Amino acid sequence: MSGTMRAAHIVEFDEPYQLCERPVPQCGDNDLLIQVHAAGFCHSDFQVLQGQFATNLPMIPSHEPAGRIVQVGSHVKGTWRIGDRVGVLNFKNACGSCAGCRQHRRKSARPDPRFCQTREMAGFKHDGAFAQYMLADPNATIQLPDAVSYEQGAPLMCAGATAWGALRKLSPEVGPNETVAIVGIGGVGHLAVQFAKSLGYKTVAIDNRPEGRQLALEVPEHLKPDLVVDSAADDADEKLLTFSQDEGLAGIVVCTDSIQANAWSLQQLGNKGVMVPLGLPKDKWQFDSEAMVFRELTIKGSYVASADEVKTMFEVVAKHKIASHLTVLDFDQIPSLVERYQHASMKGRLVIKIAE
């Protein structure tokens, strides 16, 4: 496919996205060419725009695409077909020979670009999804269920995959019917609440913002949290202890980069509790070493779920009707994204509708 396409790109850090015309990327032998129908915006995109990831500019942002395959490379294996509805994870093009690739190959025959030392990261370091077309790695591409729209599918490729991956990290230490809290009910957190309920956890939603606490309740009845807590309230710690029968939380997933919120979250864990922090603060996390040692607490890192894990996630999404609270914008509104994202009334996920 040749010609030009509409795109948005970052020209300078901390400056609004600029709309432009770019050549349609050429589909290589090992690529899938995707017509992007919807693309999401999340906090990591904001950090990219701020220059936190030292990205080479200009670059097309967004790492949450959903769309349709329009071309399949001649060497691509599998059952991919033109017209398939897909979502695409941001990591791609594993080298197959570095230490990260070798370690994964000992566990699975399928390549997993997440830990490749030379991987590309669409929307972070390389061109992403704010464009009419993009290239995808078949090993990081997932079939989109018919019941999931492009607009709903897009945020699941990062926010959903991140929330799902973090909750799976609680196992095996934290089992069904144990008490798990989600801290920070934004784009990732309100999906994490729904996933936690679907996995059978007694679920607590925690946020110091009324908008976040309200968002936790704007989900189907069967996915609503069992308890909603204002972390800034004087009785927040007491409420969590009472709800957990004085045992403390078994697990906690923290969906904010606030150093203070992460430090507070660790203190809410009971003996042998597990914490999964998802934010990436500019400064370092600060955790209480005595609490970690004397209560034998565990802090687990979590990147984003693998393609195989995301397939399972989509089965859960379809079964339990899990969905994001969306604000959908047109392509021409991309330059106003950051202003909308930073507004106090913003909740849920921002998604750009790129194609019908």
From TrEMBL:
CDD domains: CAD3
GO cellular component, one term: cytoplasm
Keyword Oxidoreductase found: yes
Record bears the keyword Kinase: no
Superkingdom of source: Eukaryota
Record keywords: Metal-binding, Oxidoreductase, Zinc
GO molecular function: alcohol dehydrogenase (NAD+) activity; metal ion binding
Gene3D superfamilies assigned: Medium-chain alcohol dehydrogenases, catalytic domain, NAD(P)-binding Rossmann-like Domain
Cofactor(s) annotated in UniProt: Zn(2+)
Domain Enoyl reductase (ER): 3-352
Protein family: Belongs to the zinc-containing alcohol dehydrogenase family.
Protein name according to UniProt: GroES-like protein
